[in-house]
Amino acid sequence: MSFFISIEGFDGTGKSTQASILKKNLDDLKIDSILVREPGSTSFSEKIREILKDNTEIETLTELLLFQASRFELVKKVIIPNLEMGKVVITDRFSDSSVAYQGYGGGLDIKLIETLNNISTSSLKPDLTFLLDLNLESSMKRTFSRNNDEQIDKFEKKDSIFHKKVKDGFLEILKNNNDRIIKIDASKDINEISYLILKLSLEKINETV
Ligand code: TYD
Predict the structure, then answer these.
(1) Residue 58 sits in which domain range?
(2) Ligand 1 close to Cβ of residue 96 (< 6 A)
(3) Rounded CA gap, 29 and 130, in Å?
(4) Segment 126-144 mean pLDDT
(5) In the predicted model, is pLDDT for residue 147 greater than 80?
């Protein structure tokens, strides 16, 4: 029953929480799954995550290439093998994040990013993507209230125009991929969102078996 789900969205929309709840819900239903995150989830990719965190002043293209290197390792070493074993793979962010952040936000050519995405993913696309959408004010508030210095740094270093471009970019990606991406209103109650994500995932999984 191999199936590939990505959870995307702007920082502070609750995607990591929802990705973990979905994993737990699938466990409870005895559906074999793994949860990974981008950048990360291989020892090399976690090192790239650290490098990206510690070097906020690098060029956008450098950033993009690091995200792509991390993605290539993750897809080759973890995502494809687990899909081949028939598992459901859930990823907290995937290639849409590069288009939204480095493309719409950072101003790099979208076609270039799509080409690199195709290389780093071996043209693998999620079967289903949840885009958690929340207004900018609420998502920033949630991020700050986590009281996490790393997050606050990240937000302070980028201006509000960047944040708006990324958020609008995700909505543009949704428009161009509405066969695969489902927008979720992230202002709803956490349990309501997780129930909806589980229900929609099971429907799609069952459609493909
Ligand atoms: P995230 O896992 O959401 O960070 P955290 O758990 O600390 O909230 O993602 C890390 C950051 O990397 C986030 O700001 C989005 C960014 N990012 C990109 O800019 N491009 C990408 O391709 C990916 C995968 C992430």
Answers:
(1) 3-208
(2) no
(3) 20
(4) 89
(5) no
Q: Over 60: is that where the pLDDT of 175 sits? A: yes
Domain count, the chain: 1
62: domain CATH number is 3.40.50.300
Q: Quick one: tokens of 128?
A: 């289903």
E strand or H helix at 82 = helix 80-84
Is 60 touching ligand 1 by the criterion CB < 6 Å?
no
pLDDT in tens, 60-72: 999 999 999 999 9
- For 190, the token pair is 């956490």
Q: ∠ CA(124), CA(73), CA(201), 5° rounding?
A: 40
DSSP letter for 186, please: T
Nearest residue (by CA) to ligand 1, atom 23, is 97
Q: What is the tens place of the pLDDT at every residue in 18-64?
A: 999 999 999 999 999 999 999 999 999 999 999 999 988 899 999 99
One-letter-per-residue 3-state SS of 11-75: CCCCHHHHHHHHHHHHHHCCCCEEEEECCCCCHHHHHHHHHHHHCCCCCHHHHHHHHHHHHHHHH
Ligand 1 atom closest to Cα of 94? 24
- As given in the structure block, the two tokens for residue 202 are 């099971």
